[in-house]
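User: Could you check the structure of this?
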Amino acid sequence: MTDFSYDVIVLGAGHAGCEAAHAAAVAGARTCLVTMDMNKIAQMSCNPAIGGIAKGQIVREVDALGGLCGLVTDAASIQFRMLNRSKGPAMWSPRAQCDRPRYIQEMRKCLEHTDNLHIWQDEAVEILVEMGKICGIKTLWGATISARAVVITAGTFLNGLMHIGRKMVEGGRIAEPSAKFLSDSIEHLGIRKARMKTGTPVRIDARSVHFEGMGIEAGETDYHRFSYISEKRPLKQLPCWTCYTNEEVHEVLRSGLGDSPLYNGQIQSIGPRYCPSIETKLTVFPDREKHPLFLEPEGLDTNEMYLNGFSSSLPMDVQIKALRKIKCFRDVVVYRPGYAIEYDFFDPTQLTHTLESKMVDGLYFAGQVNGTTGYEEAAGQGIVAGINAAHKAAGDLHYLTLQRDEAYIGVLIDDLVTKGVDEPYRMFTSRAEYRILLRQDNADQRLTPIGAQHNCVSTERMARFMQKKQKIDEIVRFCENTSVKPQRINPFLEKVGSAPLQRGCKIHDLLVRPEITLSDLSGEMDNLRALLSALDTDAEEICEAAEVQIKYSGYIQRERELAEKASRLENIYIKGRFDYNSLQSLSTEARQKLSQINPETLGQASRIPGVSPSDISVLLILSGR
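Assistant: Sure, the predicted structure tokens are below.
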């Protein structure tokens, strides 16, 4: 390596960094991915699991845009489940437990075979800026690397400080050093920073567990997967296990609270509300007699297991003593205790919707440095930042911004840059007001064409998408146009407990009934069965997508109309038009918040906490609308 000049530099090779570097390179930018340890690329610092409620939708969206995490998850999955099956399809969320070493291996292989992408093992210590524009970085080993755009995805490494009881050790992850210089360099650019906290549970040796005292939770082996272009999952599928804490466990844990860094003043930063430590659970829910725990495998070739639900930073002896009060862990042996980690992050309201800094031209932020938590949220931000960094480097103003009715990634980024964070942000389906539109089954239909516009979707993926879409549309049209007569279908309807027909109707009208499925009807109708039998690639996925589209067509249409109505405010651009502090007709809080955020559109302004509908009406009038 003699040429230290690139189009895009990505700092950090976690889940945000991998997606950002890959996206930038595929989009045509000569890209350098800088990481402190090439053997820890895409390390799963906490649970080696991908997906979950709303998070699974984000992974499918990243995949639809041409990203990597869906493909890598399918290659490394050792247990797959579709969560929330008892609810409607807007709530279905895929989740996979992964083989941790295999995930790293697969992600690194993908990156090393990506054209335009080079990996450089080093630590960035300084951001270089000239005349308000990014021009490169300096590294710990003395390299100066120039670029037109830089994406910062440093995770928990910026001034990382780990806690176990009263013991504190600097580090970004256990046994890995923190990045001690980069954060100050960023702050010197006028970018506000603060501290956050997260944590991880104890890791257990499977040989010491009495599994006969635990519940078993098997995975699923059907056609579902994360990537739209993956084949079936190749690895052996393993079960997970369940058990509960008890009052004896709680007594031991309470005895250590005086040495808990969460309660003795040692940790001052904010932590996640939705993934609390076991000591926080005892404090917040003092009357709860037990809490569920989930023991999950870390891989096919290791005895290491992850104890989900037992995140803790209590002294290690307290953690182990408490675990041994649970019958199945009475002889437990641990590989390492749980710990908490504090790290620097940067206020995301200082970013635009492209994830570019408002202070420094060409500087992008993605992942936990924006105050989020979760591999999936990081990956979603990473692919957007990477695509936009490539456009910035090329002088192309065709940036990628996703609206709230287009993607969970759009909801995520809009929440961050509009509302900021007061705790680590985690995505839930409840955060998306258009979740019927943002289902996991239609992520490719929503986003693959957008990815193609930004040169991030391969010709193979696009061809497969077009073929799938054509087949879905064919099934939907057939069901809309094909009639069924009462005498032909009523015996079947009576058998399944559905009201008989009084007159003929279209297949579409039958399918909206919740008790009737496309598969059921194909068994009764030769022409429908012939149509579905002609499907070859992705047949089950195509049928599911078509059926969901038909069954929920009324809800989908209604939500689309609501989204289109709301989008009118998104088309009224107000950035730079007003001196908010001089507008006395606005509330004091609105003047302060609008001045701080400086929203792009009236729609974004309407979502800023503290800006009331009457404030929006004032701005609407002043905008001449």
